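Batch job 17 of 40 flagged for manual review because the log was empty.
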Amino acid sequence: MLISNAAIDRRSTVFALMLIILIVGIYSYIVLPRESTPDITIPVVLVVTPYEGVTSGDIESLITHPIERKLKGLKDVEEIRSVSAEGSSMITIEFIPDVDIDKAMQWVRDKVDQAKGDLPKDLENDPSILEINLSEFPILMVAVSGQADETVLKKVGEVLEDRIEQITGVLDVVITGGRQREIRVEFDPDRLSAYRISLSEVIRAIQQENVNIPGGSIDIGRGKYLLRIPGEFTDPAEIDSLVLTERDGRIVYFKDIARIFDSFEDRTSRARVNGKQSVSLAIKKRTGANIIEVADQVFALLKLAEAELPPGIELSVTLNQAKDIRSMVSELENNIITGLILVVIVLFMFLGFRNSFFVALAIPFSMLLSFAVLQLLGITLNMVVLFSLMLALGMLVDNAIVIVENIYRHMQEGKTSVDAAKSAASEVGWPVISSTVTTICAFLPMIFWPGIIGEFMKYLPLTLIITLTASLFVALVINPTLCGHFMSLSKKAEVKEKSPTQIIYFYSRILQFALQHRLLVVLFSFVILTGIVAAYAVFGHGVELFPETEPNRAIIEIKAPEGTNLAASNELALHVEGFAAEEQDICFVISEVGTSSSDQGGGGSAQSNLSRITLDFLDREDRQDDSRNILDRLRTAVGPLSGAEFKVEKQEEGPPTGPPVNIEISGEEIQVLDRLVTATKQLIKEVPGLVDLKDDFSKAKPEIRVNV
């Protein structure tokens, strides 16, 4: 084969190439970013509009419908969905998979800008246009919890937030939980009336006094100084002395018509970790940053911060995506080393130590070459790529074994090592190429898998193709060169007779029988194939995209009836927390009451009837029971609790796929939809194997109408 012959004749060039692969491969492996999931584009854009204190029906007519009417003119759209809830509107626009998401975001912005004229004039915030970016999901969640006052918890969380954001590789830290400080003013209506002062006058007086006034600059002697007149209030007591007006020759102070309280904003949610109130920090890394390095820096900072914590406060890491990546990287390294050792051991008895080592070298050099190509293509070391590399490990030595063993056979026939290498490579080169291309073609169609799942899974065939191509290069270039100049027959092989071995003799007898009874062999093969297909049809366990595994984390969603206040939702959450606390294999019970929390760690919309409880399990080796059994027990335990819907589900790995079965009912009349949803649930709730039957239909929140 031309490429092998050229490599054998230019061994110095090949040795230099090996050195380059070694250096570049190791460097690429070190600098390759580690991530939990591939950085894929999800063609979904969200339009979120808050409008506090407004019913879902009014949200639909005032916010959702005007925006939807403008969005209907968008191109490349597959579906537009909307949810109008109390106090907020969320519209989801799903584009075709190959859309340019940046252009799609701009299209949506333009359409929303056109709709702003039709929106209520008292809307405090403009609609937010968001995209779903997996790289912006938090890699770490840190809980600040304890029996301390929530002011202290919030302060500790804010200090940690500032410190963590200074770490290289950290994109953002989102703090949730706790309440903001609020200065409350309680007016006396009788005194306002007596002094003939309106609320607008009071507000205007506060706004005029609560300002810092820049005064430019002033020259004093040889120096130039900035001039500023500070006027912002630094203490609530200062507001008491604020002069509002003069009535009947008497100065009216703020304290004459109102009382001031240094308090907190109204509670709209509660957060707890293992029963203790908490503040959470969601830490997001920058795109391309190494998840392991970022996590290590955060852990080092947290260790230093623990020494400065006030008494009764503790820090807990409730989510650590770097842990799984670190484990997979370690497993890949161990598999490479183990593969080297096993290849040498297995081939040692046939080829000797040195020659078997030539085969084993195919593993590290193929891997290093693959790392260099991955780095060149900008592909990160994520879970899919790491799994693909481990899958490819078993195929890396196939080509090398064929090449090296054939060279060894030619040397046994009396040829020199160089001639044997050239003859052997030419003899089996094309079959080796054909077998590799055949394997590559088996994975190639997966690259064209459509949709979000295809974007996620394409890294599997891509990585396998890169790795197998690298192994083919090593087998045709590096292995013949090494064997042609360093291979020698082992002493055992030199005295060995050239008669067939027992294995070859046994195989030849079977082959002769098969050739003499060709029709029988074909018929027998067809019967076996038919039997396998029939057996799978009868005894098979079905088909699923991702296998069911024992989860490390689970989520319990609680949906109380519309109109349920925070206190009632909190009671339901406490009941569920009590059941979870009885399970010794659960290390963290994280409760968020009164919020539809988002997985991106940015909090969620405040809805007093919704709660979410996250369960973190111990590591698999430390558990005494399967976490799936624990979830089954929790489903049974929360079932008798009345007045709410409970959904117990494990956290799925991989791209967002939604529930296995989704039934969509649409129509114009809310009352008809309500009746159909209830009837449908009654029909299918008895289906065997069905758990967590849930609908997203929300009835109108009860309201009291006052006619004036």
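Reviewer: the log was empty due to a logging misconfiguration, but the result itself is present. Residues 321-351 form the longest helix (31 residues). Unflagging and moving on to job 18.
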